[in-house]
Amino acid sequence: MKHATGWRPTPAHLRAVLGSVLLCAVGVLARRPDLLVIVSPLAATAVWAIIVRPTCVPTVTEQVGHLTLREGEATTCRAHVEDPEGRVEDVAVVFECSEMIDQQPEHGQVVVSLPDDGSEPLQAVIRPRRWGTHRVRPALVVASSGWNGFRCESQKWSVIRELVALPHPAPFDATAPAVHTPGLIGGNRSPHHGGGTEFATVRPFQPGDRLRRIHWVESLRSGTLHVTSTWADHDRNVVLLVDAFEEVGISGGVDGDTSSLDIAVRAAAAIAEHYITSGDRVAVVPLGAGMARRLPPASGRGHLRRILEVLARIEPADSLVDTGRIPHGLGRGALIIVLSPLLSAGSQQRLAAIADHGYNVVAIDCLPALIGQQQPPGAHAAIAWRITRLEREARLRRVSAAGIAVVPWHGPGSLDPVLRGLHRRTSPSVRQP
Predict the structure, then answer these.
(1) CA dihedral for 382, 388, 392, 394, sign (positive or negative)
(2) Which segments of 278-378 does DSSP mark as H helices, in order?
């Protein structure tokens, strides 16, 4: 809630008063009654505007419908003007937002005639075009009295609101089998026998088997006590490394062109949503992302919401130097998914170091396909970009030669070929009893 400044005469009202006085003086001194007749409506309007001048400043209340929403979704900014005297006739409001927010009406400008009870809300629809944090500044409210004689403006000391636009997950689905992890608790079938729920085989009774596992049909048929064995359940531990050391390309929002960071953040949101929906644990580690914090592995819808909020607060840190170091505490047996444009030598060193530590690593190439068309025109820029592409291709060949899979992001099925290979490589031999 905020109050407006005091009522002040408008420039039009000052001109009307001065013009009336001047024409009246000229008419009297020059004995021109026609001038007095001409100026009488103007003088009456100026006098009446002074008579109906408000004495109490209105109170302005602002409200934003939702401060957290998905990119591309819309919410409403409202401003309510309370006029206890009922002398405010017109109210104009300008809602100020960041450049990545579309407004309806355009530029957030709304003008209405305030009724006597002062209950008319002033509102504008805002729509963030890109994920991230956006500022919604206090609205500028200007109220005018009758005949536009006086006006007052709202004070600008209100708190700037922060609108968080969560990334919209890109379409994604993985049909490949899971990469085996050493856990024994979760919603996926383990390659080992244990106390799970999925039937494995019928085997002879061994000391320690539970009586409820006895398979009476096979026991009566063979004359030897048999029990049913099941596959143990395990969970997957997925770690998403989002490279935010640099952003390549120009972001046009959810409806326009995409930058490398747009692809990385939306792909990370899609992968996290897929695995968390399957009951797995997901961790997020932003690299060079400024104030974005790291999330430990967890599961559940609440954790997915926290992941989206962390991804929405990622900002590129161009001033930092990518040293290629890997973060600590990635988790034994975890599936490491690195989302990066793979333009720097540090990204190649990080991938090699992760693979040398024995982790299952997959690199997702987040470089936009139309990046060459987004570069500024000019011969020098084209040559520089061509050299950069050649250096990048050489790094990718070295990464592939080291046995690290690099796949481009194209939505559903992007990781299936790689996950199938990792599944075959990490599957231990299961000895049948």
Answers:
(1) positive
(2) 301-312, 345-356, 371-374
Q: Which amino acid is at 370?
A: L
Distance linking the first and last C-alpha atoms of the chain: 74
Between strands 59-64 and 188-194, the pairing is: unpaired
**pLDDT tens, 58-94?**
888 888 888 999 999 999 988 888 888 888 888 888 8
Please state which CATH number belongs to domain 237-426. 3.40.50
Q: Which DSSP string do the residues of 177-229 spell out, in sequence order?
A: PPPP-S---SSEEEEEEES-SEEEEEEE--TT--GGGB-HHHHHHHSS-EEEE
Hey, where are the domains in the chain?
A: 59-166, 188-234, 237-426
Could you say which architecture CATH assigns to the domain 59-166?
Sandwich (2.60)
pLDDT of 179-228, one tens digit each?
Answer: 555 444 444 544 445 555 666 788 888 887 888 888 888 888 888 888 88
Which amino acid makes up residue 142? V
Kindly report the number of other CB atoms within 10 A of residue 401's CB atom. 8
